[in-house]
Specification:
The structure is a homodimer. With about 160 residues, chain A is an alpha+beta fold. Chain A contains 3 helices and 8 strands. Chain A has an 8-stranded mixed sheet with strand order 2-3-4-1-5-8-7-6, with helices on one face. The longest helix of chain A has 12 residues. The termini of chain A are far apart. The N terminus and C terminus of chain A are likely disordered. At the A-B interface, strand 1, helix 2, strand 4, strand 5 and helix 3 of A face strand 1, helix 2, strand 4, strand 5 and helix 3 of B. Chains A, B: This is VOC domain-containing protein. Chains A, B: InterPro entries: At5g48480-like_C, At5g48480-like_N, Glyas_Bleomycin-R_OHBP_Dase, VOC_core.
């Protein structure tokens, strides 16, 4: 009976019955292109960061020796963060990240999570898109919180070939 | 023989023999005062964040209903981040954090960690200080990476009364 009431309440809200569960909130460092590779090397040398995975930009520019980094996942202690080259590529999930902090939230319920954030006062940016990279490998929603920070809400990046640890 | 050479090399660098081990790298969101409490409430409502601990500013201003937040630790999934009110209090470790990302790195070897980061190209900011808060409860060093981000290098915050989970 209690379960039934809950399901009805969920339907009334227009939300999916499944609860929103986030598995991680990874901060994203966006570096002026093409310096992200240097930044990754620096974080390894300075802070002992371990590179978990890397996705390069498929559109490699002729004048660049190395491809731009779409996202590299680094781990320090128990914490994971993402480093990317900032480009004007409109398909990059980090393109709105000119300044301020970007968090990457992972969940299986992207649409419900965006709705919940907006109900709490966040502003939705753009439509849901398909992402690619260490953080956002599937559906990506974007919301800006009332304090100027961007939160990417993404399904987990299952497509990424993680480096065997 | 190899160990001896290593020890001599370490002494020559002026660094401690103990290796630098970071246990966590927590990002820090600095919010225009006095909105950090609203921000914490928002992150709970929007993203289901769990509050692990909170340290208020001891210098409560008369015109404020609530004390300012020096640092509140929030957890989403496996990730922990810190939220603070941005004030002009010179004793706050977050005072240089007007813009850009702040990471809080936890280690038992603060001095050696700062030296290693500087050797890798970071710029040391300020002397070592004593911090207070969810992130920086002991000795605090500050370095700026070549990409404009501030890294606080701190001994773990043992003095903070963590909420029992």
């Amino acid at each position: 009976m209690a379960q039934e009431a809950q399901a009805v309440s969920g339907a009334e809200n227009g939300a999916k019955a499944s609860p929103v569960v986030f598995t991680a909130a990874k901060p994203w460092l966006v570096v002026e292109a093409p310096k992200a590779n240097d930044a990754v090397l620096f974080y390894k040398a300075a802070f002992g960061a371990e590179e978990l995975s890397r996705v390069n930009d498929p559109k490699r520019k002729a004048e660049l020796e190395l491809p731009l980094i779409r996202s590299a996942e680094l781990k320090i202690g128990s914490s994971v963060f993402v480093v990317s080259d900032l480009t004007d590529d409109s398909s990059s999930p980090a393109k709105s990240a000119v300044s301020g902090l970007v968090f990457c939230l992972e969940t299986e319920s992207v649409e419900a999570a965006v709705a919940k954030a907006v109900a709490a006062g966040a502003v939705s940016e753009d439509e849901l898109t398909e992402g690619e990279g260490g953080c956002c490998g599937g559906v990506v929603g974007k919301v800006k919180d009332p304090y100027g920070n961007l939160w990417l809400i993404c399904s987990p990046a299952k497509k990424c070939g993680d480096v065997d640890a």
